[in-house]
What we know:
The protein has 159 residues and is α+β, with helices and mostly antiparallel strands. It has helices spanning 12-15, 27-30, 36-40, 43-59, 63-70, 91-94; strands spanning 6-9, 71-79, 82-85, 101-111, 116-127, 130-143, 148-158. It has a seven-stranded mixed sheet with strand order 1-4-5-6-7-2-3. α4 runs antiparallel to α5 (63-70).
Amino acid sequence: xxxxxxxxxxxxxxxxxxxxxxxxxxxxxxxxxxxxxxxxxxxxxxxxxxxxxxxxxxxxxxxxxxxxxxxxxxxxxxxxxxxxxxxxxxxxxxxxxxxxxxxxxxxxxxxxxxxxxxxxxxxxxxxxxxxxxxxxxxxxxxxxxxxxxxxxxxxxxxx
Length: 159
């Protein structure tokens, strides 16, 4: 059965822009099992929190560790010039994704049932003195065994 997709625009008060001051790990990374009901009741905020965690890890130079821990076993990062599987994540490969700072603009969350969702946004990243703009789409799925959200795919397309 195909469920209707619901797109949620997230208020700026929930999201903010740029790096969040909070670097609190998600419940899965803290070792807690998360009740699925509590997640789906506030899916846009939960997935945007996950999205910011990934960008914060890239800014902190911990992108490889974050994506290896947070991606599904067959997950992919689709970057300009490269398609990278979780097992191929290395420091050199993630230099393609690294950034010094970021800002997320106009995020939308597409609900794909209760166990999956897509965050779509325009992201501006700063690398040194250069700004780069991308349209970013990240697909998250809920891992019942691990008790948290995982990245199935993330695509960055230059805007």
